[in-house]
Design brief:
single chain, alpha/beta, Rossmann fold, 7-stranded mixed β-sheet, 7 strands, globular
């Protein structure tokens, strides 16, 4: 099984169970109570137990979700997601890199309004408030502390991508 965890119905991937806590369920078939767009499931991303067993996932992609959870919830969710990985399973964590955003601001590459949007969210949706921050290094250290081997880590603009593999 492969899972893609995202926000705002963006970055929906074919061949994955796409989980989005903000998914608009207005497309529900009132007779079957099933989503007409079967590619996306609305669920609490902090607990995937009703969708996947422990050690079942080949790959989990988490795209800019941990930023929108309170820090303690983000740590607990990441631990939970890692528990869903099978041996040699991979988790790909994508998120805003607080260090890179601060560096851009201090170097004058972005103005204060853009800095605030990147750090706090743009408040365009009720959920669009960033409540925790990571860097590439802090995410790498967290995944390593959970027993994963880091296979890839890189910065892309002001975001990090960290891949960890369960031995």
């Amino acid at each position: 099984m492969k899972i893609n965890i995202t926000l705002g119905d963006k970055d929906i991937l074919t061949g994955y169970l796409n989980i989005d806590p903000t998914h608009d369920v207005s497309d529900l078939n009132i007779l079957t109570k099933e989503s007409l767009s079967r590619d996306v499931v609305k669920a609490d991303v902090r607990n995937l137990d009703s969708h996947v067993e422990n050690a079942e996932c080949k790959e989990i992609i988490v795209n800019s979700v941990s930023d929108f959870l309170e820090f303690e919830d983000a740590i607990a969710a990441i631990k939970h997601w890692v528990s869903k990985l099978r041996h040699n399973g991979k988790i790909v964590m994508i998120g805003s890199d607080a260090h890179e955003i601060c560096k851009q601001f201090l170097q004058g590459d972005i103005e204060l309004p853009e800095f605030n949007k990147k750090i706090h969210g743009d408040f365009s949706e009720p959920w669009d408030v960033k409540m925790s921050h990571f860097t590439m290094e802090s995410m790498s250290e967290l995944l390593q502390s959970l027993g994963l081997n880091i296979s890839k880590k890189r910065i892309r603009s002001d975001s990090f991508i960290v891949e960890g593999i369960r031995p």
